[in-house]
Amino acid sequence: MFTVPEFTDLQKRAAYILLATSIAVGSLFFTLSQGKASVPKPMVSLAPMTATPTVSATIVVDVAGKVLHPGVYTLPQGSRAIDAIKAAGNQLKGVSLTDINLAQIVSDGEQIIVGAPAVVVSKGKSKSSSKIVKSSKVIVNINTATVLQLEVLKGVGPVTAQKVVSFRKANGNFTTIDSFKKASGIGAAKYNLIKSQLRL
Prior knowledge:
By secondary structure, the chain is α/β, with parallel strands linked by helices. The protein has helices spanning about 10-40, 80-85, 145-150, 160-170, 190-195, and strands spanning about 60-65, 70-75, 110-115, 120-125, 130, 140, 200.
């Protein structure tokens, strides 16, 4: 006949502790295995590499006057007056470019007039007198014009022309056409009358 062995209280307590430890360890391994399975792997999305297009800055220049193809031209930023004239097919035969600073960097919206009439000086009967003929067709470079050249502009007499030249010598070249109004004797009304004839 099979008999159940008798355990002492100490043996029973050790068995209970062993059983409880086994259950705790098993629960821990189960929890860890479930946690690893439930954590999704991070998805790494790589955007396709696309080359950024390079946009070269351009300017628009109006080339008028005695050129082969007068018109509006789009040029790279930093172009010079000679580049604009070449884009228009160059000057007509026999036309001089000495009144244009060919090395000047042109700005957006600028107009270059090739073959503009030169300053006209009409001599009177007296050899000691001369008369400046005013003209609305003459283009004047405000940074290089002499007193006589400035006098061709309507409303600009010898006194005002001299003031402009003196202002330019004292303050340096004009940086914009609009800054010509800062010269002594050139008010807003006079500037609006002649601004179409001015260039840098």
